[in-house]
Write a structure and sequence with these properties.
With about 300 residues, the protein is mainly alpha-helical. The protein has helices spanning about 10-40, 45-65, 70-90, 100-120, 150-170, 170-180, 185-190, 195-215, 225-240, 245-265, 275-285; strands spanning about 5, 5-10, 140, 145. Helices cover about 70% and strands about 5% of the residues. The strands form 2 sheets. A two-stranded antiparallel sheet has the order 1-2.
């Protein structure tokens, strides 16, 4: 059997693929954070709670209303987009000209409220969400059997990440969104509805968190703590990639997930902290992040 540094190659490749699955969640979550911060200058600490809410909405839809997984992939992001619009109009629109700290404190408070509501209703035990029948089973990759659902998570995350990047960077709508946040007065003078653009931006970021929650529901047990367990690592990913850098969030999320997977093979003791070690090194060398803009 082929070995690399004393580790069988199938075991190494298996951990690399599992790391890519975790990296897919990192990428989608950090993408939503990057969109919100890059466009609105808001550090959205409620992102993890909204991701958890997305998973719970999918579970509630299946349990109470018999809504299938495939419909949940469409309906849950739309529902959370509406929630995001309400949050932006009711609270965040008053904070754009203030220090980042105010937005951080507000969204942190919202996260505690959302998590508290679900904990009060469902406790902290996990709720099972079945894998769709079409995605049950596993793929034989030669070096490992990869569950079809995990393969689907990787493909779906890559498609969503690319579509979001393309929309914001390469389309007219994306140029309107960037203009509305970079120079709102001038953009308003050209007849573009700036408040609408800002509202859509936050709604898009929250919808991405909800979509990630639906994708995570069959892979993880749905519980009120799943967002708070993930959000700190996701913030580290955003900082490493560069605050507000959409491309940086995607690349860094996928890359760090695979690094985390490899670390579990060679040095499992630091696998849970390797993301933060890398963050400290990157900030020491390049404070703006790998893909961030130096001011």
């Amino acid at each position: 059997m082929i070995e690399l540094f004393g580790v069988p190659l199938p075991a190494l490749m298996g951990q690399l693929m599992l790391g890519l699955v975790n990296g897919s969640f990192y990428a989608m979550m950090s993408l939503g954070l990057a969109v919100i911060f890059g466009m609105l200058n808001i550090i959205n600490f409620a992102h993890g709670a909204l991701y958890m809410a997305g998973a719970f909405l999918a579970w509630m839809g299946m349990t109470y209303w018999e809504i299938s997984y495939w419909w949940a992939l469409i309906l849950v992001p739309l529902a959370l987009c509406v929630v995001g619009v309400i949050i932006e109009r009711a609270f965040l629109q008053w904070l754009y000209k203030l220090d980042h700290l105010y937005g951080l404190l507000l969204t942190f408070g919202l996260a505690l409220i959302i998590e508290g509501l679900f904990r009060d209703q469902y406790g902290v035990s996990g709720q099972p969400y079945p894998i769709p029948e079409e995605l049950s089973g596993a793929l034989n990759l030669g070096f490992m059997f990869l569950p079809k659902y995990r393969a689907w998570v990787i493909v779906a995350s890559l498609l969503v990440c690319f579509a979001t990047w393309f929309t914001i960077e390469k389309t007219r709508l994306g140029s309107y969104l960037r203009a509305a946040t970079e120079n709102p007065k001038l953009t308003q003078a050209f007849g573009i509805n700036v408040p609408l653009m800002v509202m859509l931006t936050y709604g898009l970021g929250v919808a991405l968190a909800g979509l990630a929650g639906v994708l995570a529901a069959p892979a993880l047990q749905v519980n009120p703590l799943m967002g708070s367990n993930l959000i700190i690592a996701v913030f580290a990913v955003v900082v490493i990639g560069g605050m507000g850098s959409i491309f940086g969030s995607i690349v860094t999320g996928l890359g760090l997930g695979m690094i985390e997977g490899i670390t579990k093979v060679f040095y499992p003791e630091i696998s849970s902290t390797v993301v933060f070690i890398i963050m400290a090194i990157v900030l020491f060398i390049r404070p703006a992040g790998l893909f961030g803009r130096e001011k």
